Each structure stands twice: as C-alpha cells, then as structure tokens.
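Memo to structure team: turn this sequence into structure tokens by end of day. - J.P.
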Amino acid sequence: MSNTSTPTIASPFAINEHLTAKNRLFKSAMSEQLGDRNHDPTDGLVRVFAAWAAGGVGTAVTGNVMIDRSALGEPNNVVLDEQSDLSKFRAWAQAGQTDGCKIWMQLNHPGKQIPSYLCKEPVAPSAIPLGEGLDKVFNMPRALVELEILGIIEQFALSAKAAKDAGFDGVQIHGAHGYLISQFLSSRHNQRDDQWGGSIDNRMRFVLEVYRSIRRQVGSAFPIGIKLNSADYMKGGFTQEESMAVLQKLGNIGIDLIEISGGTYESPSMVGDQVKASTQAREAYFLDYAKSARQLVDTPLVVTGGFRSTQAMNAALESGATDLIGLARPIALDPDMPNKALADCDFKADVPIPSTGIKALDRMMMLSITWFESQIARTAKGKKTSASLSPWITIFEIVRSMGVLAFKPRRA
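Reply from structure team:
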C-alpha cells in the first residue's frame, strides 16, 4: 500500500489492494430519510450524494439501508432486497462516485429498535424491552429462533451482493447505536442461553457470521467495513473490553475497515452527549479508544465524532490512532466543507447546537439529529443549506409529514 508515513487529510489512503480513497475525509452515515414509497432511493437522495461527493470527501457512507422491508427503523428508510429497483441504486452509486469519491452502503437491521407504529412485534436476541419509559413507543420484542437468526445473516449477505452489483464501492455493517447487531453484542439486551448468547465469544458470533456470509457473497476483493461501538455507556451493556475483543477478532478474520463510534440512542455519546470538556476541545470523541485499538489490529480505522477543524483532523492522523477522519453533521450543514478543510490549514467549521429553548421539546423532536436531516432535505431539493434555519421550521416540517407520530420517538 502507498499510505504516507506523515499523513494529512489530503493524503490518499489504500483501504485494501483494490480500493484507494483520494483523501482521508470520510463521510459517516447519517439518516437521510429519503426513500420513496417502495423504499427505493429517490432522485433527491441521488442529488444529495452527488453534492457530497463534489464537496471533496474521499469516501461517503450511505445512511442505514435496511435489509428487510418488514423491519424498518424509520418510516422512509431505503431497503435493498429482492424487491428493490436496482436501477435506482445504480444511479445512487454513480452519483456518489462524482469526482473520484468512493461510496459505501451501510447495511442494517434495527432489531427491536423499531417505533411501535411501524411494527407490532419486533424481533431481538431476547424478549427484553427497551429501557424504562420507552415501552409505550417501542413494542416488546419477540426472541429470535435460530432459524430466523440464520435467515437474517443470509439476508445481510444478499443485500451486500446487490450493493456490489449496483456499483457501490464497499459495504459497511452497522454494528453500533443499539440496532440488532449491537443488541446481540450487549449482555443487557442479549440474555440467550444458546450459542448466540452468554459469553462475549457467543455474543459476537452473530456479527462474525454476518461478516463471513457477506464475504462469501462478494468475494475477497470487495471491501467490507463495520461501524462498531467503543462501548454502549449503559449499565450492564457492551463494555470497552468486550468491544476490543470483537474488534480484534474482526481484524483477524479480514474485515477491511473499522469505524469507531459509541453509545446508543438511550445514551447518545456519538452526538456529543455527556462528552468531557477536554475531549470536546480535542474534537475527537473516541480517539483514546482508537489508540488502544491500534495496538491490537492493523485494520484501517476511522474515528467519527466531534471533528471540526483541519488542525485537529491532521493531529489525529499524525498520532497514528486513526487512518481516516469521520465527519457527519458538518457535511450535512455544508456539503462543501471537505473542500474548505482541504484548502485551508486553519479552517474550522461552525456547527450550531439547534434548540427551541425548550429542552424537553428539543429532546422529544430529536433536534440534535432532525435539524441536520432538514439540512439534508434542503440539499435533496436543490436548495442551499442554512446555519440560521429555525429549529421551529424543522419541527413544523416533521409534524406536517408525520402528523401526531412526530411526537413519538423514532429511536430508543
């Protein structure tokens, strides 16, 4: 590989022998909410990824694409299965490859993290509800039987093969933020007494088999990555030590890229919730974990969460703890942000914290996420994003599109 010894964000990076990113800037997955009524990509979604690619990012990961249309995390999710219109996915892939950008598809199954209005009886590793106070908006799940587990593993692989056939440059397994793979990894949510639960070796079996099944379908050259929690930050949940064990095993069996995140929507550290001031000042929320991970694996690493300035990004790369810089909200707010960071060593993005001034309402409407979805929606319509966009406009748009369902959580 031709990766430089003293990298900057402008340095190319070889993911594997077959795929090289033109720079170290990595657009992390965000929920675009831009699937059509058949859960295929819309023209607006194609427009968004063309804009992000033209904005200078080297690698872009899609928002979570569901592998099962009977298990949606959100109403307007894109689904890739045997019923999908692959021509629309090909258009999406081509748009994401504008100016040499590489586009990866993130594949996901939500498990029990499905709003009650979307699914009467979700499935999960164990019949354990989400945290206290969420039982009215997230239904009690049914524990998966082994045949169903094997079926979901196979569906991940079939969706990955379809993504490859549609022209995507890689796939990323969503193993974080409280979705199904994260549920299997967590002793809080996985209390099975068979080969899929109990010890961390058993709890990681599901994600390892998902990876192996995908690899058999797409071949040795096609890149496969994972988004993995450094920890859940919840009592009785997935710990940092367990995360390190999973990371090391995935690295040993050949995964091509590991993106490090953390938390769940019950404890959302991935968007800066309860992050220490010293960590915010450094900008990289999960860099300490990445430094430890680097001692265990040679697998390329991505750290996502908190980056705002070219100086902090370059410092993180120079430390050797990460190979790529994950960006999300700054790019949602300004699709041209990567070009600006590449052109100016003193660049710093100004990313506001949207608020109505009513904390309970902000949390109910998930403004730390939905305000940025509003920015993505503007790009989808060919409009300019706006840092001064009123949070009340976001709330109005959510209520207009979802009615009373707008006041029910979409995620745990």
